[in-house]
What does this fold into?
Amino acid sequence: MHIAEGILPGSTLVAGALLAAAGTVIGLRKMDDERTIHVAVLSSALFVASLIHVPVGPAPVHLVLNGLAGLLLGWAIFPAYLTALVLQSVFFGYGGITSLGVNTIVMATPGLLCYMLFGRALSGATPRGAFAIGALSGAIAILCGCALLCGALLTSGQSFSVAAAVVFAGHIPVAVIEAVVTGSVLSFLLRVRPETFQRTHATAFAADRLPESA
It folds into this structure.
């Protein structure tokens, strides 16, 4: 889901940068010491997971894990992805600095959506329920991210319509894999340390209820 430099028009790049900056600021304001550790760990995982690429048009296919990251981090998914994408761009040339904002929005926003839809249900779920929630979130996050990516590509003109369709089709198998991976990880976490996971999620929702001036 990395969109390379030189593809998107300036207006799309600016809009993506502003939205990503806003999400990152909110995410940083909602982070405490415990969540900072979680963000660092998940950002490292996102960095590694995205290194294995299969070229499909202008946006390579790879594991994204945005459903998992969203459920575990909430708003903090924005600084987590921004950090991972900056490092990938600097060290490996994936994406680019100018498209960093758009790429962050494409990957982080679907994860935040899953957090808002399923986060509360996950905090009290059984391992089997966690697998179902994770599987649904993993698939939804990938498909929503693909929709955002295709929308961004289409702002460059109808010449990218075929490429957008190819990218979306190429991510359908990824959505299936992400569903299994996300469900399995969440189920494992609840089996191994259920009290820690539930306490972390309760703290996250409490932070999300704080007034912005807090």
